[in-house]
Amino acid sequence: MLVIKADLVEAMVAHARADHPDEACGIIAGPDGSDRPQRFVAMINAERSPTFYRFDSGEQLKVWRAMDDADETPVVIYHSHTATEAYPSRTDISYASEPYAHYVLISTRDPEQHELRSYRIVDGEVTEEPVRIVDAYDPE
C-alpha cells in the first residue's frame, strides 16, 4: 500500500495539470529504506509528448546524485496520462527500473477530475496497490 500525504498528491496533480496536454513526470524521494515519500521533485519530460515521457538524462543524474548524498531513494515515480486511464503502458512497464518504487499514474483526460492509481512494477509484472492519502504521517 502507498501511504502518501495529501499535499504531495496535490503537487503531483498540479504538475500533471500544468503540463497537460503533454505528460508530466517526476519523483518523490524519501529516506532510504523508509517507504515514506517526502521530497517532491517535478522533472522535465524530455520528450515533451502527450503520449510518452522520459526523464531528461542530465536532470535525472543530478536528482539521483542528490538523493544518494541525502541517503534518499525514489519512493514514488510518477507521470501522467493525458488521454487514457491511469494504467501503465507497455512502454511504462519496459522502462520501470526501480523495483521498490511506487509507480503512480495520474490521468488528466477529464478536465474536471483526475484519476490517481499506484502500482508496483517488478520484472515486467504490474501489481496495482491501494493508495491511502493522509494529512500527516504517523510518528515512527
UniProtKB/TrEMBL annotation:
User: Which superkingdom, per the lineage?
Assistant: Bacteria
Under the heading InterPro entries, the entry gives: JAB_dom_prok, JAMM/MPN+_dom, MPN, VirAsm_ModProt
Instruction: Return the Gene3D superfamilies for the record.
Output: Cytidine Deaminase, domain 2
Q: Which SMART domains match?
A: JAB_MPN
Quick check: keyword Membrane in the entry? no
* This protein's UniProt keywords: Hydrolase, Metal-binding, Metalloprotease, Protease, Zinc
What CDD domains is this protein classified in?
A: MPN_like
Taking every annotated instance into account, which residue ranges of this chain make up the domain MPN? 2-125
Q: What is this protein called?
A: M67 family metallopeptidase
Q: Which organism is this entry from?
A: Nocardia aurea
